[in-house]
């Protein structure tokens, strides 16, 4: 059977059907709906230039991502707060003995450039609208904090009415901690087994979700997951 509309070009690709047993669809944000990596690359380069940090572009970007991953993983493990990981990242990246307030001021410089580069993936808005149009509850489930993640949705045109934003800070636990999935399901008025989480992180969005009783769909735009595009998702009506 031919696939309708935007699916036609994906006819040879696997289509993942979200069936009627799923009442709640949760989407990850960074790397799934929004191109975080590209925005972070651009933000890091502009930020480094403003601070007078020298080096090849590829070296600066690799250093920023390495530091970001280490500090953010500590937050995900509940070793430090979300604010503390921002402070730690900026101290390490600049190599300066910054006070907390100074480090946060430096982070605001990065955030200005990072925010200017926010872009939604082209398949993001249609996927949200298809999920909502199927009669399911739909939410955004992210390890970020409410202010920044809410701004991402608003700035990129992805915000929708009746689509809650569930953040690690608000839930009091980050993916892949089991309680984060349980609390996300509870916030959506569902049981974990009634939820599907769609995201790009094998650890946070797939393994962690499945271990907590949710279903999961792994998006990898390079071809190493279950789907390479959100256009491959189909939702049966409820």
TrEMBL record:
<dbReference type="InterPro" id="IPR051540">
    <property type="entry name" value="S-2-haloacid_dehalogenase"/>
</dbReference>
<dbReference type="Pfam" id="PF00702">
    <property type="entry name" value="Hydrolase"/>
</dbReference>
<dbReference type="InterPro" id="IPR036412">
    <property type="entry name" value="HAD-like_sf"/>
</dbReference>
<dbReference type="InterPro" id="IPR023214">
    <property type="entry name" value="HAD_sf"/>
</dbReference>
<protein>
    <submittedName>
        <fullName>HAD family hydrolase</fullName>
    </submittedName>
</protein>
<dbReference type="InterPro" id="IPR006439">
    <property type="entry name" value="HAD-SF_hydro_IA"/>
</dbReference>
<keyword id="KW-0378">Hydrolase</keyword>
<dbReference type="GO" id="GO:0016787">
    <property type="term" value="F:hydrolase activity"/>
</dbReference>
């Amino acid at each position: 059977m031919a696939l309708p509309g935007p699916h036609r070009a994906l006819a040879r690709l696997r289509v993942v059907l979200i069936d009627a047993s799923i009442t709640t669809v949760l989407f990850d944000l960074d790397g799934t709906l929004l191109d975080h990596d590209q925005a972070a690359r651009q933000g890091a380069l502009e930020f480094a230039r403003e601070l007078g940090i020298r080096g090849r572009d590829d070296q600066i970007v690799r250093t920023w991502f390495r530091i970001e991953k280490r500090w953010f993983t500590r937050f995900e493990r509940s070793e430090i707060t979300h604010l503390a990981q921002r402070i730690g990242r900026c101290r390490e990246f600049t190599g300066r003995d910054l006070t907390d307030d100074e480090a946060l001021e430096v982070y605001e410089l990065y955030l200005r450039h990072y925010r200017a580069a926010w872009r939604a993936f082209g398949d993001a808005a249609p996927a949200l609208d298809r999920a909502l149009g199927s009669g399911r509850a739909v939410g955004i489930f992210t390890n970020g904090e409410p202010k920044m993640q809410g701004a991402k949705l608003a700035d990129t045109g992805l915000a929708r009415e009746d689509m809650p934003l569930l953040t690690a800070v608000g839930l009091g636990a980050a993916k892949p901690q089991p309680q984060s999935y349980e609390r996300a399901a509870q916030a959506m008025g569902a049981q974990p087994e009634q939820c599907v989480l769609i995201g790009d992180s094998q650890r946070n969005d797939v393994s962690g979700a499945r271990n907590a009783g949710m279903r999961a769909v792994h998006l990898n735009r390079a071809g190493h997951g279950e789907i390479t595009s959100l256009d491959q998702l189909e939702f049966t009506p409820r």
